[in-house]
């Protein structure tokens, strides 16, 4: 397997862009990524891309040009973008290609995601009971976690407050105004214990990454950011994940535990070697739970971490430096790639007001979604 580098990054702002389709937002991001790499669409030898609500990703060739390149559609829940990246990484690592592109985009309608039980092999009663509404599922799972490990509502508020504070400095973020913790904690309750500021929202946006072999990256003068690991895992027995119809009395594993372990083994490093991380924060509790599931702390230690500001930009392990899903929103096809975009930007030292100090050299991204899929990517400068 040969080394793979990220040689170009591009993003279309997240949020709402009236009059611009999701496909066009993806094409916008692709053009920006190729320009960043000093390349053009005819130079791309392949493409992987995904979208949940904005059409087939392969039709982006109508926007970018009919060059005949192979383009693979990816649809893997919230791990769609991460899966597109893994396909691209494998195409180059295997030696089959020298340069290609991973693209993710989406344009969700306003309101909650509208998943159907039959799409996930679930009986109709599951939807009738309200469990297809993910806000209720996440709140229920979080309540249990808080009771078991002593997590407080104040910690949930601190996660959201940090997200909006970081997003002030992220031009691509949707919500870029700071919100104080008292406002967050006293806002309208959506699903106890989560208030409206503790949830992300369906959104729009596009992200593209150009990948290249080591030889090609050197030719381009872009051999700074290397992909050390890229993995996706599904749920093991006994895990309790989004759209799970029941929970085993004896808790099993979790897809994030599997993906994180495999990624660290592939990279040959451990959690202590990571300088910054982007963790799936569908809601405030998700970031807290994923801190432990990805190996950065023990269950319950998040209280101390958040109270001491250890996940802030200048903390021990900066988490979600651009505001994460809470501030950026979640266009499913693009969200996982946004995390990697942010990490690549940070490793280049181009984070501006949200730049992690201390010359970071390693960056970790984790995406999680229904029905229990986790993807992890580790970058190294």
Please summarize what this structure is.
The chain has helices at 22-37, 61-64, 80-93, 124-128, 134-149, 153-167, 181-185, 214-220, 255-267, 284-293, 302-307, 324-328, 332-347; strands at residues 4-15, 47-50, 71-74, 99-107, 189-191, 194-195, 204-213, 226-234, 276-279, 362-369, 373-380. The protein is an alpha/beta fold.
3D structure, described in words:
This protein is α/β, with parallel strands linked by helices. It has one domain (4-110, 200-380): 3-Layer(aba) Sandwich (Peroxisomal Thiolase, Chain A, domain 1), CATH 3.40.47. It has helices spanning 22-37, 61-64, 80-93, 124-128, 134-149, 153-167, 181-185, 214-220, 255-267, 284-293, 302-307, 324-328, 332-347; strands at residues 4-15, 47-50, 71-74, 99-107, 189-191, 194-195, 204-213, 226-234, 276-279, 362-369, 373-380. The strands form three sheets. A five-stranded mixed sheet has the order 1-7-4-2-3. The chain has a four-stranded mixed sheet with strand order 8-11-10-9, with helices on both faces. A hairpin with a 3-residue loop joins strand 10 and strand 11 (373-380).
């Amino acid at each position: 397997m040969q080394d793979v580098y990220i040689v170009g990054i591009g993003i279309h702002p997240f949020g709402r862009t009236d009059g611009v389709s999701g496909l066009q937002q993806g094409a916008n991001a692709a053009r920006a990524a190729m320009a960043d790499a000093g390349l053009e669409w005819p130079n791309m030898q392949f493409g992987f891309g995904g979208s949940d609500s904005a059409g087939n990703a392969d039709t982006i060739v109508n926007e970018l040009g009919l060059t005949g390149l192979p383009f693979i559609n990816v649809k893997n829940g919230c791990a769609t973008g991460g899966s597109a990246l893994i396909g691209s990484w494998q195409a180059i690592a295997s030696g089959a290609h020298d340069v290609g592109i991973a693209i993710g985009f989406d344009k969700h309608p306003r309101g909650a995601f509208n998943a159907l039980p039959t799409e996930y092999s679930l009986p109709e009663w599951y939807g009738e009971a309200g469990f297809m509404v993910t806000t209720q599922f996440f709140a229920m799972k979080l309540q249990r976690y808080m009771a078991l490990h002593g997590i407080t509502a104040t910690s949930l508020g601190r996660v959201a407050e940090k997200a909006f504070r970081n997003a002030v400095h992220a031009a691509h973020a949707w919500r870029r105004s700071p919100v104080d913790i008292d406002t967050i904690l006293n806002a309208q309750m959506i699903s106890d214990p989560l208030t409206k500021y503790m949830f992300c929202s369906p959104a729009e946006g596009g992200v593209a990454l150009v990948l290249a072999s080591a030889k090609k990256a050197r030719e381009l003068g872009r051999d700074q950011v290397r992909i050390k690991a890229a993995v996706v895992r599904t749920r093991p027995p006994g895990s309790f994940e989004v759209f799970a119809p029941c929970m085993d009395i004896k808790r099993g594993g979790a897809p994030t535990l599997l993906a994180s372990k495999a990624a660290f083994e592939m990279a040959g490093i451990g959690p202590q070697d990571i300088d910054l991380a982007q963790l799936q924060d569908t809601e405030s509790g998700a970031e807290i739970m994923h801190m432990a599931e990805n190996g950065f702390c023990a269950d319950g230690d998040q209280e101390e971490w958040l109270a001491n500001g250890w996940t802030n930009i200048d903390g021990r392990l900066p988490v979600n430096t651009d505001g994460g899903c809470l501030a950026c929103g979640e266009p499913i096809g693009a969200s996982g790639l946004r995390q990697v975009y942010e990490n690549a930007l940070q490793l280049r030292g181009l984070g501006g007001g949200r730049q992690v100090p201390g010359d970071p050299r390693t960056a970790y991204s984790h995406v999680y979604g229904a029905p229990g899929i986790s993807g992890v990517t580790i970058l190294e400068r």
